Amino acid sequence: MRGKKGQLVIGGLFIVLISLLAACAGDDTGGDGDSGSGGAITLYSPETPDLTNELAAKFEEVHGTPVNVNYAGTNVLVNQMIAEQGNPQADVWYGGGGILPFETAVDKDIITQYIPEAAEDWEVTENGIKMKHQDDYYVGTEIFVLGFAYNTELVSEEEAPKTWEDLLDPKWEGKIQFPNPAASGTSTLMVLSYMMQHGEEEGWEYFQKLTDYANSIPDSGSSPTKGVAMGEAEIAIGFDFMAYELKENGEDVDFIVPEETPVLVNPVTLVKDGPNPDGGKQFMDFMLSDEAQEILASWNHIPINPDVESQTPISLETVQEHAIDLDIDWVNENYDRIRSEWNTNIQ
């Protein structure tokens, strides 16, 4: 009897132990539960890892919830979310070089609707800038401006180009770099915006001339601006923050906002059927808070929150007059085609 009783005691302890382990597993903070709330948040982002990790750390400091950051290029993350449909691993997606990948994601059915309270009263489009999706599928967190970086040791502010047509001045021949539109979303935006204004025939003629003036057309969106900093080129096409980050680090680089140019928000969105939707919504709310916006500003991004001051010479207010109206439907319809035709039409 004593031996059998001992076995019963051991068996009872074993059951208790299993129950405790099961309870711990059910309380796991990895965001894999089906409760829709609580646990860690999984963030997909192509933005600079140090930036996204800083945002994640601040969120955990403010809300007490950890954020697991998964970094990869925009196209890689989009394809991953498509592959994960039916079993999504991410809760929230932030950043992608502007709104274009997010517009495409709506059609691919990988994101869902949510707008933070702070943005509920925003107009969809303000002064030519689309601030949020018309059906609430994403909201802007910061402003990106497409323009010209220049090497301040080689080019004065007065002689730097002020319009897209100025780039075709013969004095810039062999001194320009811009990203490959067949590979870079930054450069695809440049091509599409010009063609929307001037038509495809004139657009292809323009970019053939611009290509003839370029000394390098790398695949990376940030490489031309880095090339300017290294003196490999005098002028580069890229986003504003790329130049200002280098300038802050002591490089001889500055930035020109063209008279008319694409100005885009960089959004955040909720992944459809993600494991922790409540956490994802909370992170979206956080991205418009003073704490997150101050971090973005410290990385030379233009904050969308009017209560947070831009750390660069440009702000949402100063760039609105430069923004061109983007026909988003036309962009969505022609994005892949124009990108694929680049190598065929440009020699």
UniProtKB/TrEMBL annotation:
Secretion signal, residue range per the UniProt entry: 1-25
Entry-linked CDD domains: PBP2_Fe3_thiamine_like
GO biological process: thiamine transport
Molecular function in Gene Ontology: thiamine binding; thiamine pyrophosphate binding
Highest taxon of the lineage: Bacteria
Pfam assignment, any one: SBP_bac_6
Protein keywords: Signal
Protein name per its UniProtKB record: ABC transporter substrate-binding protein
